[in-house]
From TrEMBL:
Source organism per UniProt: Vibrio cholerae serotype O1 (strain ATCC 39315 / El Tor Inaba N16961)
Protein name, UniProt field: Uncharacterized protein
Source domain of life: Bacteria
Lineage: Bacteria, Pseudomonadati, Pseudomonadota, Gammaproteobacteria, Vibrionales
């Protein structure tokens, strides 16, 4: 059984990855929207 702080860091890493993915997704959607509006 791994120490609790290890699993905690793993969860934090996963959460950070999810947040960054959401941010990049938002940016990508904005870019696509701009592209659609200009075309």
């Amino acid at each position: 059984m791994p120490p609790p702080h290890n699993s905690y860091t793993k969860i934090r890493k996963l959460l950070r990855n999810l947040i960054t993915q959401k941010l990049t997704l938002k940016i990508a959607l904005k870019q696509v929207f701009k592209f659609i509006l200009t075309v």
